[in-house]
Write a structure and sequence with these properties.
Order of helices and strands: HHHHHHHHH
Largest sheet: none
Distance between the termini: 114 Å
Mean pLDDT: 75
Helix content: 40-55%
Structural class: mainly alpha
Length: 376
Amino acid sequence: MSRILIIIAVLPALILLGFIYMRDRKEKPPVKLMVLLLALGAGTIIPAAIAEFIGQLIVAQTDTDHQTMLLVLCFLVIGIVEELGKYLVTVCTTWKNREFQHSYDGVIYMVCASLGFAILENILYVASGGIGTGILRAFTAIPLHCTVGVIMGALYAKGREAAYAGDRAGMIGFMAWAYIVPVFIHGLYDYLVMAASYGYISEAWVFLILGVMYVLSIFLIFYCSAHDRRIDGRPETADYGMYRMDFRRPGRGYYYPDQPDYRAGYPGYPGGDAYGQAGGYMQNTNYNPYNGGYTQGMNQYPGNGYAQEMNQYPGNGYAQGMNQYPQTGVNPYPQTGVNPYRQQENPGSQNYSQSYTSNGIGTDYGMTGYNGQGRK
């Protein structure tokens, strides 16, 4: 099989999947999980082919006309078998997966499984039918699998949301419809195509179902994307703001909405103006680093705090510079000089302070010498 045929068989499905993926405006699913679902969806084609072969043998044994056999084959064999494989691999893989937290996630996951099946099926058809078959199926069979995947995913997400909420009846109902509706659409499409090929109906019915399928699929993609929400019972703030680290999922991006809804807070934490502000943790003077807060810079304290510069204390505090004491008279040491005992190194002049002790006669340690006379 040439590269051109492979590209024609694979590219339409990847384009549709990329479009649906980019419509996720909140948390995009991890690529690894999507690739896994594509592979599992493709793998279902083997049991589906075996089941369809057995089903055709059983239907062929019935004593019915050909048109009725087509109805049974399309609705009760092909539709049921192919959609069951996609349904089961997606549910088994994502139902308890921590990556399934939003309603639009269900759409993406089901579409991955559906298009995985469609890609491998398309490769087989294009390999035998050529470029013309690939181009035809790019506008018929591939959109069909995408449409049923979108419908199945939207209902699957509703069922998972009901399960999170403890609504068992709602869960069973949505999960049942998530399978029944795609089976009906798939069976109807196959029947119209086969019936038109045998001349039982007009080909106009095929174009009609294709048109409805396109419109329905596009509408559901935009609707589900616009109404994407958390379904696991946690608030939307679990995805963004200061709380997003608690619910971080590797390989996923986060959506920061323009509206200030995320400032409502999370249970156990203050909301409103307490957290989540644009200027840091708080918009008050307690924490803002440029408004009398803890630091003005690295290892520095505010102007009215402990230091003006690194390792220095404020002007009205302990020191003006490193290892110096203040100049104001709040200490028992001299106001001038660095050394509190000596002002000069020459022992002949003013070695000590003016009046360290007094004996009543004169200063013992005067200005000019040890006893005030310049001698010992």
